Amino acid sequence: MPFRTALSGLNAASGELRVIGNNVANASTVGFKKSRAEFADIFATSNLGVTANAIGTGVRIASVAQQFTQGNIEFTDNNLDLAISGQGFFLLNDNGVNVYSRAGQFGVDRDGYVVNSQQQRLTIFQADAGGNITGATGPLQLDRADIAPQATTQIDVRANLDASATPVPAATVFDPADATSYNNSTSLTIYDTLGSPHLATMYYRKTADNTWDQYMYVDGAAVSGPDTLTFDATGAITGGTPVAVSFTPSGGGAVMNVSIDYTNTSQYGSPFNVNALVQDGFATGRLSGIDINDTGVITSRFTNGQSRTLGQVAIATFNNPQGLRQLGDTGWAETFDSGAPLLGAAGTGAAGLIQSGALEGSNVDLTEQLVGMITAQRNFQANAQVISTADTITQTIINIR
User: Fold this and answer.
1) What is the CATH number of domain 154-279?
2) CB 106 within 8 A of CB 115
3) pLDDT class of 216 with cuts at 50, 70, 90
4) SS3 of 177, please?
5) Domain ranges in the chain?
6) Can you give the pLDDT at residue 20?
7) Can you spell out the DSSP letters for 109-160?
8) Which CA distances in Å does 306 have to 38, 148, 150, 180?
């Protein structure tokens, strides 16, 4: 009698419904990957194997296979939210145990580590003090301490001194308060060893054709000058650069040694203009934000305009991702079937790119799942009907007189 055969069909259809139900339940779960039930027929075997005209004895669920197709990427307002476009998994550290996930909903815990809602830490390739990415891996930790200031040591002046300007009479004593004692001036902010800002002003006084004197004042006090700059008949500078300046700033900072580079300064017959004033110092700064590019390089931004490379997000790929063991909470663990993880940067090898400020949604297609649900329901009903029919036949045989 086909009772057991039909019962196996009921169990298989019921299992498929459970798989579909789990997919539907997780249609809005970030990073979730749907599964499908794969069936295999059953035959009774003997020492001689299965005969050519054997009748099957039912069906079984051979495998519940995960489907690692790409989910839709949705943008968010949190730049620590990360989505992988392509293959690969985020590597997370769960108290020393490696967990792999496609869910990139990250935040910062009390110690500054970037973690998900299960407090699993995001693993990255670490950067050295110079911002160079190394091969060492570790958790991403945001340091909220103020960045140390850097004193100005170099000033790059890119300007044009007017060749047609009238030289200032030699009898006129230079005085920054007297605009007739110099031809032009320009200012910029420089920083001492404490990160305190100081206003530096350079004054330019033409003394003869192709010859200029430069004076430098900091916070109104003279620190340099006159320093002579000379130019040739084509307007190119020929002497006087760089200008070395040494002074002690007000406010307790250490002695400052500043080099003023005029290599890119010219003397043409056009009005005085400053194309650029660049100095290499900066004040102390606080962490203001984090940027992550499509290859996973993490850069911290500070309130003083500086930035630092913290590391690069590590992406794990597997030869057989379907062999990964599901852990729940949209996490997976490696197994013998999955093979060992291959760690690399986003955009290299088989690893996909990273989208910051975005999340990968579930790859569940509700329409597909509902159609599958109807099919599984019909299969269940049909197998139940087989049992009902077999029961009727059995009753008929029992009633034979």
Assistant:
1) 2.60.98.20
2) yes
3) very high
4) coil
5) 3-69+363-398, 73-146+286-360, 154-279
6) 94
7) -TTSBEE-TT-PEEEEEEE-TTS-EEEEEEE-B---SPBPPB---EEEEEEE
8) 55, 11, 11, 39
